[in-house]
Structures are given as C-alpha cells and as structure tokens.
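Cont'd.
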Amino acid sequence: MPNKNGSVYGLTILSPIIEDPRATPSHDLQIRDYLAGLSTREDSPFALAPGTHLARLVVMDDVVYVGAPACEEHLKSKYLIFESNCDGDLDTYLSGLAATVPEHLDAIWRHCVGYPGAGNRKAFIDYMKACQLETTFFFAAVNNKTVTETLRALQTQTAVADFIAAHQGVEPAVLQREFIQFAAHLKSQPIPLPGSMGPHRTIETGGRNE
Amino acid sequence: MSNINGKVYAMNAITPMKPWKTWILRAAFFLLDHVKPMQKDLIDLSFIEFARWVVVPRKGLPFLGNGQQEEVLQYDYLLFFSNFNGTWNQYIDAFSAVLAKGLNLVWRWSEKFPGSVPVTLFKEYIARVQFDTDYYYTAYPHATANDVKSAHIVQLSLDSLSAVAGQSTPQQFADAWLTFVLEVQTHLGETGDAPIAG
C-alpha cells in the first residue's frame, strides 16, 4: 500500500479553503497567520498528540505555470496541505489528534470547506479521509520505529557516547558494575519530549553550510 | 513561512503532466516500490528522512460541495514533498549528481522538465515549481537521518550488552564490552544545533 512504508504512514491531505470575498482577512491568510504563531517545539500540537515524526502545513495558492508551450491554468480554490509522516494506522492517528489538540485543529481547519470540527470524532475522521490523496510512492529512511523508540534511541546514543568517553581503560569489574548501573539508570529516564532540541551540549557546531 | 526546522528542510514542488503520461509514471513508481535495489541510490544518499510523490489526477482534487467550485483542469499534477538534511543547494546538487537517471525517470513526464543535468537548468526549474511551507514540525529537530539510523544501532547493541552484563564474569564482560564499542564507535556522532546556513 503506497500510503505505508513499513510501520510508517504517509498521510497527504488537501482541504479546500473557503473562498469568501466578504471575509477580511481572507481565510487562507487567517490560516497562515495562525500557523505563523504556532510553536514548533515541545508544545507544538504535533508534539502533544502522539505519533508524528514530521509534519507540515502548507497553503497552496495555485498550481504552477511552467511556461509556453504548456497551458496556463488555475485552481478555483486554495488548498491547505497537511503532510504527515506518522506511526500506526490512520484512524488511531487522527483520533489521537482530535482527542489531544482539538482547539488547534479547529482553529486551522475551520477555514476549510465542510470542516465538521474535531469534537465529532467520526465526522472529523470522515472529513479528513474525504480530503486524503493516495501517496503514489513513499520513502522512509527508517520505517520500522515509532517516534517514542526513536527519541529513546537518540537519548541512548548521547548517553553511551558520554559513558564510553568516561570509562576508557577502566578495570573490567568496575566497568561491569558501573555499566549495569548506567543501563538501569538510562532505562528509568523519562523519554525526551518530542520536538525538543535534546540535551544542551557544549560541542561547537558552527560553520557555513552552503 | 518556515521551510527549515532544526536540521530538516521541507521542500514542496508541483509540476503539471499530460494525463496520458501519468500512467507511465505510475508504472515507474510501481517498479521502484517493488524492486528494492532500484531504491539503493535514494537510500545511500542518506540525508532524506521521508519523501513522497503524489500523482493528483486532473479530476482528483478533493471536492466537498458546500459552495466549493469544482476544479476544471487539463493537467494531472505531480506533488513532491521531501524532508531532507542540509541546504537546498546541497540537496539539489546531490540529487543531480547521484540520482540523475532516477530523477529523469520521475520528472521527464512533467511539462518543460529540462533534465536533472546540467544542474543549473534543473535548479531553475525546481525553483519555479517549488512553494514554501507555512508550518513545519519534526519530533527530533536536533537529529539527521544518519543520526536516527545510528541511534537505533546503538540502542540495539546496548540492549544486547545489557541482557548479558549481569550474568558475565568481569573478563567475559570486558570481551563483550570491546565488541560493543567496536559495534557502536562509528555511530556516536553528535546531535545538536544545525550548522549555520548562509
């Protein structure tokens, strides 16, 4: 199924935005304005709701004219694109969004045609599915791990690097004892919050990247 | 507008295609999906976290009534969404240098596609068909695709070592530790702030 790659789901939704000449500002601009103020860190709606690896929201104003001899044509509606790379099956994911961040969903999608609100769970899921496009080809670099597993692994990676650096040339018995303590401590640590930049490190990472 | 979040760049592109050509493209994607060795270059590039292509038939845009006007289009459209590490220029350069044949196979059916080599015309075309992202979220902005792959290798190795650590003699543990360090030593790269792009 092209929407899935392993256990990761590639969700593509295009919701037509309300065209109302009396609306000031226009509905697409109101969406953009809301999104501009929305956090992308730990308090992002996609961090608060479960299961999103990466997601984007885009107002698509029109199709693109690539020049003659192609024909110039235009859309009659603007569309809100919701592209998400998420865990599990679609119903569970959409239900999680509706249950956790209904106010954000409503604030964004209330500018879209036919949006029923997140409060009516079934209507919300039906609406999202009505706006869904099937992905033709979906690539995922890692396709068998959940968001939680990945955050845990990234935390482990950092901790292991520090542990190895601090235990060069240590006696086997001491190393074994301290490793067992380290592994137990690491396991008991809370999983880092989705959307966070991870632990602050003093390592220099500057430099031009162009 | 925010195409960048931490170490990831969100790219959106849309290109028109004559409807009869989309069936050729669908066949190409079917092959790419089912013949895994064809994805080797895409995997080896290793800076793409997720990417997708969506063929939108000219009558396939969602139509919900409620006052929405039905679209009347001559072209099908190919939507492309990518989540990659690094800058736009690095990405397009690498795509052009490594995946030229694959890119041509995908986009040659789009109107006015100039080919992925030479890269100057390719970049001009991508810039023309690209549109910006309004909101971009990632659960792990401090990590690249390679960081994520490596982190899972470290986690797997750590879990294996943890499983035997309690039952080993100190010397047995020291041997297992050495094996563990050899396994993970190339996967301990630092995560953190993205380099400064400019």
